Amino acid sequence: MACFQHREDAVSFLRGMERRLEKFHLEIEPSKTKLLEFGRFAEERAQKRGKIPEQFDFLGFTHYGSTTRYGEYKVKRMTSKKKFRAKLKEWNEWLRKERSHLKKGELLRTAKQKLVGHLNYYAITDNRGRCDQYRQEVERLMYKWLNRQSQRRSYTWERFKDALAWVEWPSVRIRHNLDPFRRSALNEG
Predict the structure, then answer these.
(1) Mean pLDDT of 147-154
(2) How much is the pTM?
(3) Exposed e or buried b for every residue in 146-162, given b needs 16+ CB within 10 A?
(4) Domain limits, the chain
């Protein structure tokens, strides 16, 4: 990802990158490369054209322009829909496979570690809502698969919540603060 203030600079950079890669018999992947207008003025320009401002996915996050509560422009990030669905699908497969191999306590502890790993990466500024939604979906999947172990239900929702408390199930808290203004305020205090 490379960002430029002026379109001409971006086009020049892209052409230079193509020439440089040609020397090594490489080429830019067109499906993963595009020039898009993004930034402080992109929203008003897009609205003048009757469109919505562009966003892009990078490293599992959707990056989009927004404003702070004080009306200042800010780049925000949230887990991309594609990555969100793919990770939940992985959870579903893992739970389907492991529910009969692992004891419930071990399954819950392992699931906790998997969720903590996910949150360590995705729990960033402005992504708390999507992380909390993910945590809830994981809990729903676990409840579903744990109750499919026998003819009788293993858990009521209340007993399941007690089991999560027993393993000290993580809550969502921001692990990476990407707000430059907040960071400077924290360093001063």
Answers:
(1) 73
(2) 0.81
(3) bbeeeeeebbeeeebee
(4) 7-79, 81-166
